[in-house]
Amino acid sequence: MPDDHPQYAVLDIDATLSDTSRRVHYLERKPKDWASFFADSKNDAVLDEGLAVATTLAAGHEIVYLTGRPEHLRRDTLQWLAANGFPDGTLYMRRNTDRRPGAQVKLDRLARLTEVKPVAVLVDDDLKVCAAAEKAGYTVLRADWGLDPETQPTLFEAQEKEGRT
């Protein structure tokens, strides 16, 4: 008998589902060009492993997309997900003025989701998000197929220090 109330599978987008490598250069400038970084997100290529994981998880879970992208990118993000064959799901985004570290933003949302039903897995590339989620008792699949934090620290620093993605 199918489960009428499947648990959540929560997926990050940037560097988990989408290839952000071609737009990281906007964050290497001083000052960082956040407007261009975000505007160019609609042109990201798909990370094949991210799509495969999302598709597999959708077979038995309710999909939730949890991103640090600001709310003003909702339409572009939804269009990108649909155009690239990602499963239907609920999209949660950072408020436009929210500059908290990514781990805090995501753990707050995970806690709210858990009030409704269990979170089966969080899929994310950010080491700090993954560590904080595991410490809080969530099962985590680290998306290590995207950007490497050792060789490409720009995006990871921006997530924690500037609370922008």
TrEMBL record:
It comes from Kribbella sandramycini. SUPFAM superfamilies: HAD-like. InterPro entries: HAD-like_sf, HAD_PNKP, HAD_sf. This is Putative secreted acid phosphatase. Residues 6-144 form the Polynucleotide kinase PNKP phosphatase domain. It comes from the Bacteria. Coiled coil: none annotated. Pfam families: HAD_PNKP.
